[in-house]
Each structure stands twice: as C-alpha cells, then as structure tokens.
Amino acid sequence: MTTRLEKFYKEQVVPSLTEKFGYANPMEVPRITKITINMGVGEAATNKKILENAVADLAKITGQ
Are the CB atoms for 32 and 9 separated by under 8 Å? Predict the structure, then answer.
C-alpha cells in the first residue's frame, strides 16, 4: 500500500526533477528514505494531559 506522499512523489515530483535536471536514469533522482517529525512537550512534565493531547495531535498529523 502506497501513501499519498509516496504516490505524489512518484507521479509528480520524479518526472519534474527528471525534466528539470536532465536525469537520464530514474535511479538518479533523489529518494525520500525517512521522514522525522518532532514536537517539544516540555510542559508535559507537570501535566500528563498535555502529553496525551500531543500524542493525539501527532497521530492525526502522521495518520498513524
């Protein structure tokens, strides 16, 4: 199963980069290997509800 980002990258970005930079081989196009998301929750040390809300927000953003 491919994600929306992966599908968009393969269908839109790769052809665009190939044309823009004149790549002869599709394997020359840079690939996305990992996406990292970070969130500071310093105030969660005093209030555990904040941590639960932060986890829920990240789950919504990432779809996981």
Answer: yes
